[in-house]
Design goal:
The protein is an alpha/beta fold. The protein has one domain. About 30% of the residues lie in helices and about 15% in strands. α5 runs antiparallel to α6. The N and C termini lie far apart (about 35 Å).
Length: about 200
């Protein structure tokens, strides 16, 4: 029987690059490392700033083929769209070429940390402004439930965000289910390790 360390990574096509705020490494229920461990094509880098996408990724990359989860003031529910992933322009409004843009992506940048930490990463890395911008409009709230206060309904853990993105853009429901099963395991372990009255902290994207 395979141990946890021997679980075969999911063979995803769309690369997940996770930029993690240094303070997030100390949190009980951070999910970035678990996300990378679950995916064959993913990378986790810790820090506050990088000069460009290539340096953050560790290899040459075309910014036109990458997107980042956008942390602006866009409210997906106000758009009246049923989509769970929405491409927005610099003004925070949906673009006209949604499907074409999403089909052309080779990678997505996720910012890992509390809401304020994620915003710090966004503003300290101006090269993110050159990437396509995505906002999530999930049909369900985060599985963290009451173990974390969420600043807005669309806030998901890094692992949940990756699962939603990959379900729609690379691999369908099976890849999402595999990732969410891992998240359920992390939550169960954290609840066992901590008294029920202790509020666990997660990440918000």
């Amino acid at each position: 029987m395979r141990g946890k360390a021997e679980i075969e990574p999911i063979d995803n096509r769309l690369f997940m690059l996770i930029l993690q705020h240094p303070q997030e490494k100390r949190e009980v229920l951070a999910t970035a490392a678990a996300t990378c461990a679950a995916l064959r094509r993913a990378a986790l880098v810790v820090g506050l700033s990088w000069p460009n996408l290539t340096r953050a990724l560790g290899r040459p990359a075309d910014a036109r083929q990458w997107a980042a989860l956008y942390l602006g003031s866009a409210r997906p529910a106000a758009f009246g769209l049923e989509r769970e992933i929405i491409v927005v322009d610099r003004a925070g409004m949906p673009t006209a070429d949604q499907d074409a843009t999403l089909r052309g992506l080779v990678g997505i940048v996720l910012l890992d940390g509390s809401w304020s930490e994620a915003k710090t990463l966004w503003w300290r890395n101006p090269w993110l402004l050159r990437l396509r911008r995505l906002v999530l409009n999930p049909r369900h709230r985060s599985r963290f439930g009451r173990v974390r206060r969420e600043p807005r309904r669309a806030a998901l853990s890094t692992l949940e965000a990756a699962a939603l993105l990959l379900r729609h853009l690379d691999g369908g429901p099976k890849i999402e289910a595999a990732l969410l099963n891992r998240l359920d395991g992390l939550i169960a372990e954290a609840r066992t390790a901590r008294p029920p009255s202790t509020r666990l902290r997660g990440v918000a994207n």
